[in-house]
Amino acid sequence: MSLYGHPKIVSTTVRSAEVTPMRDPGNALQNKAAELRDAFDRSFATAIRADTALFDDFLAIRLRDDPHVLRLCGVARLLPLLALTQFPSAVPHWLGLAGVAGEVVPVYDLGLLLGYPAGAMPRWMAVCRAAPVALAFDDFEGQFRHPREANASGEGSPRGEVLRTAGHVRPVVPVDEVIATIKSLALQGAEKKER
Protein backbone atom coordinates (compact mmCIF):
# COMPACT_ATOMS: atom_id res chain seq x y z
CA MET A 1 0.00 0.00 0.00
CA SER A 2 1.02 3.53 -0.66
CA LEU A 3 1.37 6.26 1.91
CA TYR A 4 -2.17 7.42 1.35
CA GLY A 5 -3.84 4.03 1.67
CA HIS A 6 -4.20 3.35 -2.05
CA PRO A 7 -2.91 0.19 -3.62
CA LYS A 8 0.60 0.56 -4.92
CA ILE A 9 0.91 0.39 -8.73
CA VAL A 10 3.92 -1.52 -9.83
CA SER A 11 5.10 -1.16 -13.39
CA THR A 12 6.46 -4.15 -15.20
CA THR A 13 8.37 -4.35 -18.42
CA VAL A 14 7.12 -6.75 -21.05
CA ARG A 15 9.25 -7.61 -24.00
CA SER A 16 7.46 -7.27 -27.34
CA ALA A 17 8.52 -10.73 -28.49
CA GLU A 18 6.51 -12.27 -25.68
CA VAL A 19 3.26 -10.41 -26.51
CA THR A 20 0.91 -12.06 -28.95
CA PRO A 21 -0.92 -9.47 -31.04
CA MET A 22 -4.62 -9.53 -30.39
CA ARG A 23 -6.88 -9.71 -33.46
CA ASP A 24 -8.61 -6.37 -33.85
CA PRO A 25 -12.03 -6.72 -35.52
CA GLY A 26 -11.60 -3.16 -36.88
CA ASN A 27 -8.59 -4.27 -38.94
CA ALA A 28 -10.59 -6.96 -40.72
CA LEU A 29 -13.25 -4.41 -41.59
CA GLN A 30 -10.62 -1.92 -42.79
CA ASN A 31 -8.91 -4.63 -44.84
CA LYS A 32 -12.21 -5.62 -46.46
CA ALA A 33 -13.01 -1.98 -47.23
CA ALA A 34 -9.59 -1.51 -48.83
CA GLU A 35 -10.07 -4.71 -50.84
CA LEU A 36 -13.49 -3.54 -52.12
CA ARG A 37 -12.12 -0.08 -52.91
CA ASP A 38 -9.26 -1.59 -54.96
CA ALA A 39 -11.65 -3.88 -56.84
CA PHE A 40 -13.89 -0.89 -57.62
CA ASP A 41 -10.94 1.13 -58.93
CA ARG A 42 -9.68 -1.81 -61.02
CA SER A 43 -13.11 -2.16 -62.66
CA PHE A 44 -12.63 1.27 -64.26
CA ALA A 45 -9.11 0.46 -65.39
CA THR A 46 -10.04 -2.71 -67.26
CA ALA A 47 -11.11 -2.64 -70.89
CA ILE A 48 -14.79 -2.58 -71.77
CA ARG A 49 -16.16 -6.08 -72.06
CA ALA A 50 -16.51 -7.36 -75.60
CA ASP A 51 -20.25 -8.06 -75.34
CA THR A 52 -21.09 -4.44 -74.42
CA ALA A 53 -18.64 -3.01 -76.95
CA LEU A 54 -20.57 -4.61 -79.79
CA PHE A 55 -23.72 -2.55 -79.16
CA ASP A 56 -24.78 1.09 -79.44
CA ASP A 57 -27.55 2.69 -77.41
CA PHE A 58 -30.20 4.86 -79.03
CA LEU A 59 -33.21 6.98 -78.12
CA ALA A 60 -36.19 6.40 -80.39
CA ILE A 61 -37.92 9.72 -81.11
CA ARG A 62 -40.48 11.18 -83.50
CA LEU A 63 -40.21 14.35 -85.52
CA ARG A 64 -43.72 15.20 -86.59
CA ASP A 65 -44.88 11.65 -87.46
CA ASP A 66 -41.55 10.25 -88.67
CA PRO A 67 -39.41 7.89 -86.57
CA HIS A 68 -35.78 8.94 -85.90
CA VAL A 69 -33.05 8.00 -83.43
CA LEU A 70 -30.53 9.93 -81.35
CA ARG A 71 -27.33 8.25 -80.25
CA LEU A 72 -27.49 8.05 -76.47
CA CYS A 73 -23.77 8.87 -76.19
CA GLY A 74 -24.52 12.35 -77.62
CA VAL A 75 -27.27 13.13 -75.10
CA ALA A 76 -26.53 14.51 -71.64
CA ARG A 77 -30.16 14.71 -70.46
CA LEU A 78 -33.60 13.76 -71.74
CA LEU A 79 -36.45 15.83 -70.31
CA PRO A 80 -40.06 16.69 -70.99
CA LEU A 81 -40.33 20.19 -72.41
CA LEU A 82 -42.37 21.82 -69.67
CA ALA A 83 -41.63 25.52 -69.54
CA LEU A 84 -39.77 27.88 -71.82
CA THR A 85 -38.91 31.52 -71.52
CA GLN A 86 -39.72 32.85 -74.97
CA PHE A 87 -38.79 36.11 -76.62
CA PRO A 88 -38.39 37.22 -80.25
CA SER A 89 -35.41 35.88 -82.16
CA ALA A 90 -34.03 36.26 -85.68
CA VAL A 91 -33.56 32.46 -85.72
CA PRO A 92 -36.88 30.76 -86.55
CA HIS A 93 -35.71 27.39 -85.20
CA TRP A 94 -35.18 28.87 -81.73
CA LEU A 95 -37.96 28.10 -79.23
CA GLY A 96 -36.66 29.80 -76.08
CA LEU A 97 -34.65 29.19 -72.93
CA ALA A 98 -35.13 26.36 -70.46
CA GLY A 99 -33.73 25.88 -66.97
CA VAL A 100 -31.92 22.56 -66.69
CA ALA A 101 -30.15 21.58 -63.46
CA GLY A 102 -29.41 25.19 -62.54
CA GLU A 103 -28.23 26.13 -66.04
CA VAL A 104 -30.01 28.13 -68.74
CA VAL A 105 -30.05 26.24 -72.05
CA PRO A 106 -31.24 27.49 -75.46
CA VAL A 107 -33.84 25.16 -76.99
CA TYR A 108 -34.18 24.65 -80.76
CA ASP A 109 -36.84 22.79 -82.75
CA LEU A 110 -35.06 19.74 -84.17
CA GLY A 111 -37.79 19.17 -86.75
CA LEU A 112 -37.33 22.65 -88.24
CA LEU A 113 -33.55 22.22 -88.21
CA LEU A 114 -33.91 19.01 -90.25
CA GLY A 115 -36.25 20.60 -92.80
CA TYR A 116 -39.67 19.62 -91.48
CA PRO A 117 -42.48 22.19 -91.63
CA ALA A 118 -43.53 23.95 -88.42
CA GLY A 119 -45.80 21.86 -86.24
CA ALA A 120 -47.22 21.81 -82.73
CA MET A 121 -44.97 22.72 -79.82
CA PRO A 122 -42.58 19.79 -79.19
CA ARG A 123 -43.10 17.84 -75.96
CA TRP A 124 -39.55 16.58 -75.28
CA MET A 125 -36.00 17.89 -75.34
CA ALA A 126 -32.57 16.30 -75.35
CA VAL A 127 -29.72 18.36 -73.93
CA CYS A 128 -26.64 17.71 -76.06
CA ARG A 129 -23.44 16.44 -74.49
CA ALA A 130 -21.19 18.29 -76.97
CA ALA A 131 -22.66 21.78 -76.44
CA PRO A 132 -25.01 23.55 -74.00
CA VAL A 133 -27.96 23.26 -76.39
CA ALA A 134 -31.27 21.38 -76.21
CA LEU A 135 -32.99 19.85 -79.22
CA ALA A 136 -36.79 19.69 -78.97
CA PHE A 137 -38.78 16.91 -80.63
CA ASP A 138 -42.37 15.73 -80.74
CA ASP A 139 -42.36 12.34 -79.05
CA PHE A 140 -40.09 9.97 -77.14
CA GLU A 141 -40.70 6.28 -77.85
CA GLY A 142 -38.00 4.65 -75.74
CA GLN A 143 -34.40 3.58 -75.48
CA PHE A 144 -32.90 0.51 -77.09
CA ARG A 145 -29.60 -1.22 -77.74
CA HIS A 146 -28.73 -2.33 -81.26
CA PRO A 147 -25.85 -4.49 -82.56
CA ARG A 148 -23.06 -2.26 -83.83
CA GLU A 149 -22.18 -4.22 -86.98
CA ALA A 150 -25.79 -3.99 -88.14
CA ASN A 151 -26.28 -0.38 -87.08
CA ALA A 152 -26.00 2.45 -89.45
CA SER A 153 -25.59 2.72 -93.16
CA GLY A 154 -25.74 5.71 -95.44
CA GLU A 155 -27.92 3.94 -97.97
CA GLY A 156 -31.51 4.87 -98.60
CA SER A 157 -31.57 8.22 -96.85
CA PRO A 158 -30.96 11.61 -98.43
CA ARG A 159 -30.07 12.89 -94.94
CA GLY A 160 -27.35 10.28 -94.36
CA GLU A 161 -27.09 7.52 -91.79
CA VAL A 162 -30.04 5.22 -91.08
CA LEU A 163 -30.69 2.50 -88.52
CA ARG A 164 -32.60 -0.58 -89.59
CA THR A 165 -34.59 -2.12 -86.76
CA ALA A 166 -37.41 -4.66 -86.73
CA GLY A 167 -40.18 -3.02 -88.68
CA HIS A 168 -38.56 0.43 -88.95
CA VAL A 169 -35.92 2.31 -90.84
CA ARG A 170 -34.96 5.25 -88.66
CA PRO A 171 -32.68 8.08 -89.74
CA VAL A 172 -29.93 8.79 -87.21
CA VAL A 173 -29.98 12.46 -86.22
CA PRO A 174 -26.51 13.90 -86.96
CA VAL A 175 -26.21 15.84 -83.69
CA ASP A 176 -22.77 17.30 -84.47
CA GLU A 177 -24.05 18.67 -87.80
CA VAL A 178 -27.16 20.05 -86.10
CA ILE A 179 -25.02 21.84 -83.50
CA ALA A 180 -22.87 23.33 -86.29
CA THR A 181 -26.06 24.54 -88.02
CA ILE A 182 -27.28 26.12 -84.77
CA LYS A 183 -23.97 27.95 -84.32
CA SER A 184 -24.14 29.22 -87.89
CA LEU A 185 -27.77 30.36 -87.48
CA ALA A 186 -26.94 32.09 -84.20
CA LEU A 187 -24.08 34.00 -85.85
CA GLN A 188 -26.31 35.00 -88.77
CA GLY A 189 -29.00 36.14 -86.31
CA ALA A 190 -26.47 38.21 -84.38
CA GLU A 191 -25.24 39.86 -87.61
CA LYS A 192 -28.82 40.73 -88.64
CA LYS A 193 -29.46 42.23 -85.23
CA GLU A 194 -26.37 44.45 -85.44
CA ARG A 195 -27.45 45.95 -88.76
Q: Give the strand tally.
A: 11
Q: Detail the poorly predicted runs.
A: 9-22, 154-158
Arithmetic mean pLDDT? 79
How does the overall form come out from the CA principal axes? globular
Describe what this molecule looks like in 3D.
The protein has 195 residues and is of the alpha+beta class. It has a domain at 54-147 and 155-194: CheA-289, Domain 4 (OB fold (Dihydrolipoamide Acetyltransferase, E2P), Beta Barrel), CATH 2.40.50.180. Helices cover 25% and strands 32% of the residues. It contains 4 helices and 11 strands; from the N terminus they run ααβββββαββββββα. The strands form 3 sheets. Strands 3-6-7-5-4 form a 5-stranded mixed β-sheet. The chain has a 3-stranded antiparallel β-sheet with strand order 2-1-8. The protein has a 3-stranded antiparallel β-sheet with strand order 9-10-11, with no helix packed on it. The longest helix has 21 residues, at 25-45. The radius of gyration is 31 Å and the shape is globular.
